[in-house]
Structure formats: C-alpha cells, structure tokens
Specification:
Blueprint lengths: L5 E5 L13 E5 L2 E6 L5 E8 L9 E9 L6 E10 L17 E6 L8 E7 L13 E8 L14 E10 L1
Length: 167
C-alpha cells in the first residue's frame, strides 16, 4: 500500500468514552458530533485494528472539527495511541504512549464550517510500536486549558470525523 492512503476512519458514534472528562455525543443539524468543552480538557477514545496492508510508516491523524459558534481564535487537539499487542498488554489499565502530539486549528470565518487538524506520529515509539494487524486505541483530547499551545476558543469544539492515513 502506498503512503498517503487512508487506513481507518472513526465517527462520533464510534467513541468509547473514558470514565471521566469525556466528549459528549451531540448532533448539529442531524450530523452526529462529539462536543469537546471550551474550558475543560475532554477526551474521546476509538478502537481499531491497524490494517494488514499497513506498510510500516508513520501515521497521520486528521481530525475534522467545527465550533459551536466561534468564528475566530485557535483550538488545540492532541492524540495518543495505545497498542493492544497479543499476550503482552493488560487491558485492565491504560497504557497510552505518553507521547502526545499537538496540533492547532483555526476557527473558520463561518460557524458550521468544518476545518481539519493534522497530528503526525513517526513510526515506532510515538505510535507505541503499533504493527499491522494489531488492535489499538486512539485517544483524541482537546487541550482546552492550552497547556500545549493556544486554545482561546471558549465554545465547544465539535468532532465530525477522524481519518488515519499512513505517511
């Protein structure tokens, strides 16, 4: 498989929310979205299996978002991967890599328009050494308090979709 091809997509209804500080399922004009608060860091978690045609490169995560009403400012997203390798990981506790990648995204000039934040993982430790055919979890977090960079939008950030491509 060539670099740049889509490996997986996740939609708001695929979310497996953590026990606290989770993004909430909502709709916008009938479109399912996950609302991430403008003042509290919140997360969404998605489970997938890295396709067997994955060729061993890095991964780029494209997070498609809108904002409830903001038309100016910047939002901040982070992502983290947890590899679920056979006969090794105890799934009774989290083991996300701890290497969180950040990406800023500017609000579009029109409320309701979707913009895309890009988060890139290099092959190896940044993606928890995830290999083809292995299950994993992908955590998406809004860094609403801006510890990793500017997030000055006070309204909800609405996740529309997540796409994972090989880079």
């Amino acid at each position: 498989m060539a670099s740049g091809n889509t490996l997986l997509t996740f939609l708001p209804t695929d979310n497996e929310p953590p026990s606290s500080n989770y993004a909430t399922l909502d709709t916008r004009n009938g479109h399912p979205v996950l609302d991430f608060d403008g003042s509290t860091d919140e997360e969404a978690v998605f489970t997938g299996v890295l396709p067997r045609h994955y060729a061993g490169g890095g991964l780029t995560v494209y997070v498609h978002v809108a904002f409830t009403s903001a038309t100016t400012g910047s939002g901040r997203l982070q992502a983290d991967i947890e590899r679920i390798d056979a006969s090794s990981l105890d799934i009774d506790s989290d083991s996300f890599t701890g290497t969180v990648q950040s990406a800023g995204v500017s609000a579009p000039g029109t409320s309701g328009q979707v913009v895309v934040a890009t988060i890139t993982f290099t092959s190896g430790a940044q993606m928890d050494s995830l290999a083809a055919g292995e299950p994993f979890r992908l955590k998406i977090r809004r860094d609403a308090d801006g510890t990793s960079g500017t997030d000055d939008i006070t309204t909800d950030m609405e996740l529309v979709a997540v796409e994972v491509k090989e880079t």
